[in-house]
Design goal:
The chain is about 45% helix and about 10% strand. The longest helix is centred in the N-terminal third of the chain and has 14 residues. By secondary structure, the chain is α/β, with parallel strands linked by helices. The protein has a 6-stranded parallel sheet. Strand 2, helix 7 and strand 3 form a beta-alpha-beta unit. It starts with 11 loop residues before the first strand and ends in a 6-residue tail after the last helix. The protein folds into 2 domains: about 140 residues, Rossmann fold (3-Layer(aba) Sandwich); about 70 residues.
């Protein structure tokens, strides 16, 4: 809980996990996508794993808002009654997996978490499958920094907008007292701005080239990595 309201410019921080605190882009994405491509090929995708990986890289760079799994399947299989089965196999392999890779925090993340948790509430709101996300949190040994941890399963229609709104209600925060930190304009930045929260975009990872599509996707602060949060005094020393 907050111990000194003058020590931090915010009463609470809400952090994303993947490519915000955790270097998912480097540590996990290559293996997870290869496993997803293999699973789709095994279920009838008319492509090699290499073709699938190449298409993923091209699509995320050129059209980051589109579902890369849908694009891959439609490109190689067209309209097929097997597509739903292939999609389910790919998404399960990608999101619901055993995390065997060594994991690293992004530069500056540990320092920011330590400083933020001294003088403010700190919450983690991350998208994914609960078992997989908790594996990441445990391997990074960061669970004790957070007042709460929320796993948002977007595959089941859950949203960060709802998760953020619940935190405002549960902890009685005013919107201007909360800073949301994440790497996705179309997820945590949009949700935060829609609710009137302050937002900080980390320009790193798979979606770093995503451009704003509306005013709610323009963050109050934009930094290259978490180290700059300290330099910009978003977290006071």
């Amino acid at each position: 809980m907050v111990t000194d309201s003058q020590a931090s410019p915010f009463k609470a921080y809400i952090f994303d996990l993947d490519d915000t605190l955790l270097d998912t882009y480097r540590c996990i994405l290559p293996n997870a996508m290869a496993e997803a491509c293999q699973a789709m090929v095994d279920q009838g995708l008319n492509a090699s794993v290499e073709d699938c990986l190449n298409m993923h890289q091209q699509e995320v760079s050129a059209r980051p808002r589109r579902s890369v799994f849908s694009t891959i399947i439609e490109t190689f299989n067209g309209k097929s009654d097997q597509n739903e089965k292939i999609m389910n196999a790919g998404q399960k392999a990608f999101y619901d997996r055993k995390v065997i890779e060594p994991l690293d925090l992004t530069p500056g993340s540990e320092d920011v978490l330590k400083k933020a948790s001294q003088f403010a509430d700190v919450h983690l709101v991350t998208s994914g499958i609960e078992s997989t996300q908790f594996q990441k949190i445990e391997k990074l040994n960061i669970g004790n920094f957070f007042n709460s941890i929320t796993i948002v399963n977007t595959l089941d229609g859950e949203s960060k907008l709802t998760a953020f709104a619940n935190l405002l209600s549960d902890y009685n925060y005013r919107p201007e007292e909360v800073l949301v930190v994440g790497d996705r304009r179309d997820q945590e930045i949009f949700a935060g701005k829609t609710l009137g929260l302050k937002t900080c975009l980390i320009k790193y990872g798979e979606y770093r080239t995503l451009q704003p599509n509306c005013v709610e996707e323009i963050a109050d602060y934009e930094v290259e990595d978490m180290t700059e949060m300290v330099q910009l005094c978003l977290v006071q020393p």
